[in-house]
Amino acid sequence: MATLKSVCFRGSTFPVCPSNFTNTRNTRSSCWRPTQAAVKSNFHLPMRSFELKNRTSPEDIKALRLITAIKTPYLPDGRFDLEAYDDLVNMQIGQGAEGVIVGGTTGEGQLMSWEEHIMLIAHTVNCFGGKIKVIGNTGSNSTREAIHATEQGFAVGMHAALHINPYYGKTSLDGMVAHFQSVLSMGPTIIYNVPARTGQDIPPHVIQTLAESVNLAGVKECVGNDRIKQYTDDGIVVWSGNDDQCHDARWGYGATGVVSVASNLVPGLMRELMFGGVNPTLNSKLLPLIDWLFHMPNPIGLNTALAQLGVIRPVFRLPFVPLPVDKRIEFANLVKEIGREHFVGNKVVEVLDDDDFFLVSRY
């Protein structure tokens, strides 16, 4: 009987039939053997760059106290309104924000194609990267997508990545660790824990495992201040993900700062809240506005507010729709109570009619 030849392929030996080999009884089973490791974990390596001279260190990200989850404005046809976007970012820079999250939940990254998403990160870096830290939301519930988007985000110059745990198609805790570890090696990373949106908490022992990586800049934590205290006691940097809790998180529980939605509207006041020491009076002044912002799921309130302030067009990508008119009137009253001078833009706040809004389903 003819003998099988062996071919070496990346460390595995595969039996191969010679061209003249025949076996009428069991040709298939004689010519094929199942391999022990057809797929290797390190076969597809991330396209990392080790050029460091223009890269941001995790320590630079850890020092940020006010990070704004920046809104993405639209033109009437649903495309990005980059002119309005640039104005929004400039207002953040002028009022003392130190970083922006691009394409996060507030920026409606979930409604963007990846091409739009990476383009907006690149645009922000190109225009503002020397004045403010640009943190790109390149997270996904697909590890493959998260890896690819993070590679692209760092390639276009973002300073750090924001990553969420896999949502909807939830995984095990070991799978969660593996998911995050697959992107942590690429650059400074903030892990985002928001169980209300993902349906799954990231427990402390997962974060403690990930903290072994030098690239873990910290955690954006939405579970509450007791969890924040647990991390800060362990020396892990944390930002509050809840505007209504951020004052106490900063001054009572050790949080470095906040990733804020409200700072889109009142960046100067949010900076004062994060930089100026314990200030329960200012915190109480802002709580009605923050409560209003989150009356409906974010970013519905923010989109409505910015349109009424005249700094963006009243355009919504569906499935988001504006708040009802009674809430729009309530916002105008809040602006008057807090003081129009504290809000972004310089136009008189308006109460828009239903017909003033564009709802875009195809863009």
Automatic annotation (TrEMBL):
Catalytic activity: L-aspartate 4-semialdehyde + pyruvate = (2S,4S)-4-hydroxy-2,3,4,5-tetrahydrodipicolinate + H2O + H(+)
Keyword Amino-acid biosynthesis: yes
Enzyme Commission number(s) from the entry: 4.3.3.7
Keywords carried by this UniProt record: Amino-acid biosynthesis, Diaminopimelate biosynthesis, Lyase, Lysine biosynthesis, Schiff base
Pathway(s) this gene product operates in, as recorded in its UniProt entry: Amino-acid biosynthesis; L-lysine biosynthesis via DAP pathway; (S)-tetrahydrodipicolinate from L-aspartate: step 3/4
GO biological process: diaminopimelate biosynthetic process; lysine biosynthetic process via diaminopimelate
GO MF terms held by the record: 4-hydroxy-tetrahydrodipicolinate synthase activity
SUPFAM superfamilies membership: Aldolase (SSF51569)
InterPro entries assigned to the protein according to its UniProt record, in alphabetical order: Aldolase_TIM, DapA, DapA-like, Schiff_base-form_aldolases_AS, Schiff_base-form_aldolases_CS
The organism's place on the tree of life at top rank: Eukaryota
Keyword Metal-binding attributed: no
Purpose of the protein: Catalyzes the condensation of (S)-aspartate-beta-semialdehyde [(S)-ASA] and pyruvate to 4-hydroxy-tetrahydrodipicolinate (HTPA).
PANTHER family named among the record's database cross-references: 4-HYDROXY-TETRAHYDRODIPICOLINATE SYNTHASE 1, CHLOROPLASTIC, DIHYDRODIPICOLINATE SYNTHASE
Family the UniProt entry places it in: Belongs to the DapA family.
NCBIfam families from the UniProt entry: dapA
Protein name as annotated: 4-hydroxy-tetrahydrodipicolinate synthase
Organism: Glycine max (Soybean)
